[in-house]
Amino acid sequence: MSPLVIQLVELAADDRSSARDLAAVIEEDPGLTTRLLRLVGSAFFARPERVTSVSQAVVLLGFKRVRIMALSISLRDMFPMGRQGGMDYDLFWKTSLYRALISQAFAKSAQIGDVNPEEAFIAGLILEIGTLMLYEISSAEMKRAFPAGNVPLEGVISWEEANLGVNHREMGGLVFKRWRFSDHLVESQKWFGAEALRPERPALCKVTESARRLTEVVFGEEPDFYGLQQEAENILKIRHERIDEALSEIFNKVEELAAQLRIKVDSQTDILGVMEKANQALARISTSMENSFQGLLEHVNRYGQSLSSMSEEMTKGRKDILQNTLDAVAHEIRNPLLAIGGFARRLAMQAREEDRGGQYAKIIAEESTRLERVLKEMVEYAKGYEPVFSEIELVGVIERVLKEFDDLFREKRIGVFRDFPEEPIRVSGDTEGIASVIAQLLRNAIRMIGSNHGEVNMSVRPVPRTGEICVTISDTGKPLPDDIRNALMDSNLSAKTFDGGLGLPMARKIIEAHNGRIELKDRGGGGNALRVCLPSSSA
């Protein structure tokens, strides 16, 4: 280390050192002083007043925080940048900075003991610095073969031990002792993986290991957001919402700090990379949903066809097995889906209008919401539907649903026209079931109209000849595509209806449970017309 770094380390070990001593050491290096003051005055610290001296910075931010930042700058300056042989210094320092910031955020939120956020920052920043030390002393041949990039820690350590006889964490622990770093910092070098998260390990060790895993997941190949959230909740006692919040805040702050540490970071490119991996994860979830529920729905169809030949006890057993399987599949899919969606929504919410990464996050958030809706609809469909009948006044139910759509109609500039009889129209039915059908058909009409500012017409007509009450919902939107027509009219549900969701098949199922039917009507002049016919209560 340089004499300046040694002095900064020694100040931490000397209980008699003062703010004046710290300022004197830092001010020996004009370049360090300038960069430190720029950092203290940056958006990263969000200081409202201008900081003009190291002594003032110490007063405003505290002795330990200023020393930590000066030490961070100095330790970073000990090594080069760029790619040399098998070592990508740019990637090393970028991931180290993210890990440091995540460690700092975790230390502030963890409920497992007293962890100093500034010490956590340093621990995260130099957690793998032994890698650079081993690389520096390796032969030219070993340098060319040195594992770099996004190789998992376990793979790096295995290669080092096989080829060099020592791993970088062992070297880091020895050097940290020599530098007289705290015992907790030394301990964080000693343990990694599951060993670092054991209950008896120091809190700092658990914080840095969790931050390391999150950084590795974010910049690696498999973004297991849900697994990381679970781990942080169980071990660090951090709510998953706070993890999403901390990571999104870090993406917004990292460039300012990186500039002062001379680390190359483009946060928008990093967000795009993370969101692309999230998009790939969503594609896998979507495929899993389609395959899993296709099998389940085949069971549903067979179950419904065989009810008449089963005893009551056998029927209940089959129903319980189906329900348990359905719940297990939904649980397995829902958790990672919610984790990805929650993180993407948090990023999109905090992004500026011009941020590329934020716009991609918005797309991922919307796709997550769509898949969440489809999952919910599939669970509801597979569970079956049993109406609770009572006499209801149909026009009143429709008016209640229309009122719920008022804001959306205004936002989309859609005119709504009613053609309802003055006398009460009564049917025997399940109020909430009928309301959900009307709502689904209105959502479909709005989707077909899109941004064309069209019209929705609703009519209620008794049909004395058939003893039915028919509700017609017509719109001026584009014609229904074949997949929606199939979803609405085909009672043999299959994977072809997956992408559009199961709102329309569920609507048909509810109406059929009322001994009614849904029809597609030809609407002259374009648009669509759907008619729902129910037996009247007097029929």
SSE diagram, text form:
Blueprint: H1 3-13, H2 19-26, H3 30-40, H4 54-61, H5 63-77, E1 83-84, E2 87-88, H6 89-109, H7 117-125, H8 129-137, H9 140-145, H10 153-164, H11 168-178, H12 183-190, H13 203-219, H14 225-236, H15 240-261, H16 267-306, H17 312-350, H18 356-383, E3 390-393, H19 394-404, H20 406-412, E4 415-419, E5 426-429, H21 431-449, E6 455-463, E7 468-475, H22 482-489, H23 503-513, E8 517-521, E9 528-535
Parallel strand pairs: 4-6
Antiparallel strand pairs: 1-2, 3-5, 6-7, 7-9, 8-9
Helix pairs in contact: 1-2, 1-5, 2-4, 3-5, 3-15, 4-5, 5-7, 6-7, 6-13, 6-15, 7-13, 8-11, 11-12, 12-13, 13-14, 14-17, 15-16, 15-17, 16-17, 16-18, 17-18, 18-23, 19-21, 21-23, 22-23
**Record field, number of beta strands:** 9
Query: What is the CATH C level class of the largest domain, in words?
Result: Mainly Alpha
Number of folding domains?
A: 3
CATH topology of the largest domain: Hypothetical protein af1432
Shape label: elongated
Main sheet? 5 strands, mixed
Mean pLDDT: 83
The SS-based structural class is: alpha+beta
